[in-house]
Design a protein that fits this description.
alpha+beta, DNA Primase, Chain A, about 600 residues, magnesium, zinc, DNA primase DNAg catalytic core, N-terminal domain, 6-stranded mixed sheet, nucleotidyltransferase, 27 helices, single chain, DNA replication
Length: about 600
Amino acid sequence: MIPQSFIHDLLSRVDIVDAIDRHVPLKKAGANFVACCPFHSEKTPSFTVSQSKQFYHCFGCGAHGNAISFLIEYSGLSFIEAVQDLAAYAGMQLPEQQSSNISHHSASDDSQQDFASDYDHNNAEISLQDLLNALQIATRYYREQLKASEKAIAYLKKRGLSGKTAARFAIGYAPADWQNLEAVFSDYNSDKTRKLLTQAGLVITSGETKQYDRFRDRIMFPILNQKGQIIGFGGRVLAKEEPKYLNSPETILFEKGRELYNLFSARRAIREANCVIVVEGYMDVIALSQHGIDHAVAALGTATTSFHIQKLLRQTDNIIFCFDGDKAGRKAAWRALENSLALLSDGKYLSFLFLPEGADPDSYINQFGKESFEQQLKQTLPLSEFLFKELCSEVNLQTSEGRAKLISDAKPLLQQVTAPALSLILIRRLAELSEIDQGELDELLQIKRSSKIRTTENKPAKQIISPLRWLILMLLLNPDCIEKLDKSWLAEWNENTEEAVALKALVDFLDQHLHLTKDKSAHSLMPFLQNSPHKTLLESIKSDALKWDDGFDLEAEFLGALKILQQAYRKKRVAELKNKSMTMSMLTDAEKLEFQQLIKQQS
């Protein structure tokens, strides 16, 4: 874990305007900066960034956060990757004990973190930057070799690739000899370089001294991570040999199940199209791009994993899986479906496109062109239809046994779906197909569903209409205001509205983290509330501050709201005491004294 104190210092040092402007050009608009929102399509800018308060908010889609959350949502980085990226930009070094235990991928699973820890302990003399540099050197070498290889150039031309496209994707060629990289690593056979190239996945070692290049006589496709760094290669043979494609091995930099080919370069196109096309191979991506379809990515010789889908859903709400129409293609599509179910939410749309048997995106677009391929994209099969189409193909719905098997096969799949509306729709469809009452089907499926369906859509900020909302906002922007808050009446305040509960939770949090109330960098409070059940409400309330100018008197507004609430509390307490008894005889001595004091304060 990265210490909260480091995150706090990082956000205090970084200017959110500069951090966002690196990716999305901002324009000054009054006290704030604006742009067309990078998270949804719009023509009129509603994405607002406050330099004084150090957060952004979109009044169109509700996107909200700080510099770290922007990198997570915009670049698809994990939390740790976003912190690392922002720290590097700010010239800050992660705490040594932390950076030594965080892998380049920042995987959430313990095994990956252990792997990273073991790597750094055992290979302290070789840094991650050393590995990245080695891969960069190899890329330049392979690109130069492509220019000198007639047969490699002829192969790419035969596949329909232009020189411009090959250069854009940094495609290269690894010659057929066994130790080609010796040309660019002068100490190729030294112990240190041997370790470096082995750990980078560029050479294979045998025994204590023998080594040879992993990639030989292959077209080379550099694989980039989400920072645009080269982390591995895919190599394609020119002749009919096996394996047809050879990827870099698993390394500290490269994990096939977490990376997607072309995602770094395709991010802007994905957002503009509000869609991503997932294909099976490098050449599919490149051929589509050459024909003007730039929002395509590919898995790296593995099935589409849940990590892939998570990354893509951070970029867009619409994923199209485009696979071959043969048995292998449908199997790959089914695996993608299985890995998607638990990640679906209402408003996300996953669909499948199966090209004619024998065709892939590369061959299809080269033969029929962009317009024909785009027509195919309009005929995709929604996930729900593909799900039941495949399940029904395995059973005979004309028999009771077949319908029973359909329910049995569907049960473990539907139990993974947590999207409320989609879950209900899928169950209704299953009820129709199995010819069974939906209530009885619910009992058979044993799907736990929230009794109250929560809406997940972000709503535009509302005007502040209650003093409770004012108090929350003031505490978010200026935590030391808590010293002016009389907590005794707040503890007795038994109102159960969402705002009242959130205010009490915020006060409890600040009581437990008193150091935050002394810090004038109030804009950094929200990162500490990311796991709060009231996070959405707090972000909505905080966004109202974007409508103020910098001369807004926070303290006066806080005291005004506090006065209104105290008056409301006194009035409510007087009513309670009056209702307790029509005479003073039923009140305790303490209550009688309290009642008299309250009446005096009201007069």
